Amino acid sequence: MTEHTLTTKPGPIHFGKTFLALLGLGLAGILSLIPTAIKQIASLPAELMDLPPQLAAVLALVNPLILLMIAIVIGNLLAQGVGLRSLVAEKVSHGTPLWPQIRPHLTLAFGMGFLFAFAVLGLDAVMNPFENTEMDTETATLTGIFSQLLLGLLYGGIVEELLLRWGVMSLLVWLGWRIILRKEGQATPSVVWMAIILASLLFGIGHLPALANMVELTPLLIFRTILLNALGGILFGWLYWRRGLELAMVAHAAAHVGFFVVNLATFALKLS
């Protein structure tokens, strides 16, 4: 692997401190799912509901919470060994200053994520995958627009990066290093790129169930969803590799800021 542009990494991270720190970040994203879960449960037929909607919504968070914890454990065990980093992990483990390492790359990460949002919307307009479909969108109201922003910042920007980058991508790089390179030297760029692409495809496929709850899936919609989300995954994966997990989080959150700006402008135009 080529040299990181961040400062020299310190010694091994502290597993327990890192687990608690990253879980604390991820919990904010998990909790941001509560309004969506309540809405989905409230729309179910009464005969299917054995529990109060609020309790059922909380229970619905158990699965993503378990997945989050598993991903954090995997990343804690494998990431640093194959040259992947979390600046938060280094901060809580060794007191390594966080902001001085993030600040030089903040504009790059935010700008790439923000511009990616407009690229996605442009490709969406060209493909027009939602033509002749009835889609119940959260961006039809001002409250929905801000709710989607909050969900994107917290769940998308934090939880999805912990799951797909810290967990899945770290595991794939480690498997490539162990199987292809037979644990010789460091993980090569080719191995890392294979892991980035595979994790990105999983990132795209993982968005299909949520889309299926809103609209009937068609081949074009499936292709569009996997492609556009995979492109985002490649961007975030590259930032994770070259700049650290937190810069991937910044870019992912910035993409949702871009979506928010466009949705807000579209909403304003409809009112004018």
Low-confidence stretches: none
Largest sheet: none
Provide mean pLDDT, rounded. Answer: 88
Span between N and C termini? 53 Å
Question: What's the total number of strands?
Answer: 0
Helical residue percent band: over 70%
Rg for CA atoms: 19 Å
Give the tally of structural domains. 1
What is the molecular shape? globular
Percent strand: under 5%
Tell me the number of helical segments per DSSP (H or I, 4 or more residues long): 11
SSE order: HHHHHHHHHHH
Summing up helix and strand content along with how strands pair, one would put the structural category as: mainly alpha
Features:
272 residues, mainly alpha, 74% helix
How would you describe this structure to a colleague?
The chain is mainly α and 272 residues long. It has one domain. The protein contains 11 helices and no strands. It has helices spanning 15-31, 34-42, 53-60, 62-78, 87-94, 99-127, 142-179, 189-205, 208-212, 219-243, 245-271. Helix 1 packs antiparallel against helix 4 (62-78), helix 1 packs antiparallel against helix 7 (142-179) and helix 2 packs across helix 3. The longest helix has 38 residues, at 142-179. The protein starts with 14 loop residues before the first helix and ends with a helix.
